[in-house]
Structure of Histidine kinase/HSP90-like ATPase domain-containing protein:
Amino acid sequence: MRDDGAPAHVTGSARERGFSLADLPDVREFAAGEARRGGMPDGAVGEFLLAVNEVATNAVTHGSTKARLSVWRDGEDLVVGVHDEGRNWRPEGAPGETPPPENATSGMGLWVARRLSRDIAVETGSGGTTVTMRFPVRAG
């Protein structure tokens, strides 16, 4: 893992943006631009942004006040990493695999992101927490 939360194999090709809670609209705009530049069809960008927003919001409301979003292309996928400095989270099982209760008003972010992405990975430890999501950039 690099210091910015992107996996070590990601080189300078990742585009990155630091953010706080007040910056979430700019983060969504940045992510949408990267998705379109990466070849994602316009019809898929809405669900992509919903997943990115859920994870980015979690990072700055539950992890730490500042976080970093990294976006890069990996083959036919657009990959998004969200890293925060939160070190106190100790999830039981794979985060986001269990649906929230029927009348839940919170606690749905990783569950939603897991359903909207091709794949999601969560790493947490002394360096903080990183959520990495993969999205296909071609329809189908």
User: Anything to note?
Assistant: Residues 42-63 form the longest helix (22 residues). The chain has a mean pLDDT of 85.
